[in-house]
Amino acid sequence: MLKFVSFSAIATVALAAASFAADSSATPPAAKNGMFVNAKGMTLYTFDKDTSGKSVCNGQCATNWPPMLVADGGKAAGDWTIVVRDDGLKQWAYKGKPVYGWVKDTKPGDTTGDGFLNGAWHIAKP
């Protein structure tokens, strides 16, 4: 049986994913309203299963929780470090914890990922 998905449903998912799809910065993320955000103002998160200096969020996890990547020329500064992911890309980490976006946050200020996966995901805070 064929199932049809509306164009608007596909567009909504695509727009949400586009909020973080290729997000990278040569400078560490900024703090805004007591949390770290990317250049578009989208909330960043940390994952309890990561170890200091190592991301374990790969594959489908990284599709849902896009890593905040380091653009060419990015350099560690203060509490911000750079970790190398399993795929070889560089990711920003705050106090050793890699930071990520969440595809279900659709606008700046959304925090729908906080507490996800039985509390394993947290808003990244200074």
UniProtKB/TrEMBL annotation:
Signal peptide (UniProt feature, chain positions): 1-21
GO BP annotations, alphabetical order: alkane catabolic process
Keywords, ordered alphabetically: Signal
InterPro entries: Lipoprotein_repeat, UCP029720
Pfam families found in the cross-reference section: Lipoprotein_15
UniProt feature coiled coil, ranges: none
Domain of life of the native organism: Bacteria
PANTHER family (UniProt xref): BLL4220 PROTEIN
Name under which the protein is recorded: Lipoprotein
